[in-house]
Design goal:
This protein is an alpha/beta fold. It has one domain: Arginase, Chain A (3-Layer(aba) Sandwich), CATH 3.40.800. It is built from ten helices and ten strands. The strands form two sheets. It has an eight-stranded parallel sheet with strand order 2-1-5-10-9-6-7-8, sandwiched between helices. Strand 9, helix 8 and strand 10 form a beta-alpha-beta unit.
C-alpha cells in the first residue's frame, strides 16, 4: 500500500481577488510537491464530486440548492467572510468528495494513508450555513459517510487549525462514535470551543476542546499532545483518524497569533502517525483547512506528505523557530484532565 493524495484543478475556479482564501494558496504548494519529486512517489486519487445522497448526511438540500443557485447567478456571499463565485459550487462538491473518497480508499486498503489538497476548506460550515471561508463541511461528511456506509465504526477527528471547527463539532457532537479534538486560539474567531463544551446528548464526553492563549508554540503543542490528545484518543480507540490540517497556527501566518514552527507541525504529524499505527493500523487522512502564508503552506504540506510516505523523511523548516517566548499552559492542561478524567503526570 502507498500514500495517496487527492487533487483536482477545479479548486482553482473558487477564487476572489483580495480574499485570503484564494486560488494561489495551493499554487506554490503544488509547485514544491512537483519540484521535489514527491508527487511521483504518491498515488493520485481520482477526485469525484460528492453525491447528493452523501451530501445530505450533513447538509439539507435547501442549503445546497441555495449555494448552487448563488453560483449559477454569478456569485455572492454566504456571510461577510464566505464568498461564492460561478465555480464555487462545483469546487466545493469536489472538495467534499475528495475527503470522503480519500477516507474510503484508506479504509478499503487502496492506500495506507493520505491527504486531500482540495479547497474550499470546510470545518466552519454548519448544516445550513456557510461561514469562515467554508461552504460544505468536508471532514464531517467524511466521518458521517464512513459510519453510514459501515466502512468504520469509530472515527476520530483531530483539528489543529488555529480556529475552532465549530461546524465540525456541531455536526458530530451528538454521535458517541465520532470523537472530536480541537486545538484553537481563544478568544478568537468564531468564538466557540470552550473547555467545558464536551458534546451533547449521547455524544457527551466525545468532544475535547483545547482553547489556547495567543503565543503558544512548539513546546505547548507537544505538552498538550502528550497530556491530552494521545490519552483521549487511546481511550476512544478509533478505526480511522481524520485530521483537519490547518497551517495557520504557524508563527508567520498573517491572520493569527500562534507560534508553531514547521518543525513543530512535523512533530504533530509524527505523533498522529504513531497514534494511528497503535490504534487503527495506520489509517489516517489529512484534510486541508486554513493557512494563509504561501511559503508556510508549501513547506508544511510537503513535509506532511513526505512524512506520511516515509516517517524518516527530512523535515523542511527554512523559516526556523518562533521569535517570542511561549505562555505556560499547565493550568489549562490540568483543568482539561480533570474535566475529561484523564490521568495527570504521576497517576
Amino acid at each position: 500500500m502507498s500514500t495517496c493524495y487527492a487533487y483536482d484543478a477545479i479548486e482553482q475556479q473558487h477564487t476572489l481577488p483580495g480574499h485570503p482564501e484564494h486560488h494561489s494558496r495551493l499554487q506554490s504548494t503544488l509547485h514544491m510537491l512537483q519540484e521535489t519529486g514527491l508527487l511521483k512517489r504518491l498515488h493520485a486519487l481520482r477526485v469525484q464530486p460528492i453525491s447528493d445522497e452523501r451530501l445530505a448526511l450533513c447538509h439539507p438540500r435547501a442549503y445546497t440548492r441555495r449555494v448552487a443557485q448563488l453560483a449559477a447567478k454569478g456569485g455572492g456571499h454566504l456571510d461577510p467572510d464566505t464568498y461564492v463565485v460561478p465555480g464555487s459550487y462545483e469546487a466545493a462538491l469536489m472538495a467534499a468528495g475528495a475527503a470522503v473518497d480519500l477516507s474510503a480508499a484508506i479504509l478499503g486498503g487502496e492506500a495506507s494513508n493520505g491527504m486531500s489538497l482540495m479547497r474550499p476548506p470546510g470545518h466552519h460550515a454548519l448544516a445550513d450555513r456557510g461561514m469562515g471561508f467554508c461552504i460544505f463541511n468536508n471532514i464531517a461528511l467524511a466521518a458521517h459517510v464512513t459510519r453510514h456506509e459501515h466502512l468504520a465504526d469509530r472515527v476520530l477527528i483531530i483539528d489543529y487549525d488555529v480556529h475552532h471547527g465549530n461546524g465540525t463539532q456541531a455536526l458530530t457532537e451528538s454521535d458517541p462514535n465520532i470523537a472530536y479534538i480541537s486545538t484553537h486560539l481563544s478568544p478568537f474567531y468564531p468564538g466557540t470551543g470552550a473547555a467545558t463544551d464536551i458534546g451533547r446528548g449521547p455524544g457527551a464526553g466525545s468532544v475535547l476542546n483545547i482553547p489556547l492563549p495567543a503565543g503558544v508554540g512548539d513546546r505547548a503543542y507537544q505538552q498538550l499532545t502528550t497530556a491530552l490528545i494521545l490519552p483521549f484518543a487511546r481511550r476512544f480507540r478509533p478505526d480511522l483518524i481524520l485530521v483537519s490540517a490547518g497551517y495557520d497556527a504557524h508563527w508567520r501566518d498573517p491572520l493569527a497569533s500562534a507560534q508553531l514552527s514547521l518543525s513543530g507541525y512535523a512533530r504533530l504529524v509524527q505523533n498522529l502517525q504513531s497514534l494511528a499505527q497503535d490504534m487503527c493500523q495506520g489509517r489516517i487522512a489529512f484534510i486541508l483547512e486554513g493557512g494563509y502564508d504561501l511559503e508556510v503552506m508549501a513547506y508544511g504540506v510537503t513535509t506532511t506528505l513526505g512524512l506520511l510516505a516515509d516517517p524518516q523523511a527530512a523535515i523542511l523548516d527554512p523559516l526556523g523557530p518562533a521569535p517570542h517566548p511561549e505562555p505556560d499552559i499547565q493550568s489549562l492542561i490540568h483543568q482539561l484532565q480533570t474535566i475529561h478524567h484523564l490521568p495527570s503526570r504521576g497517576e
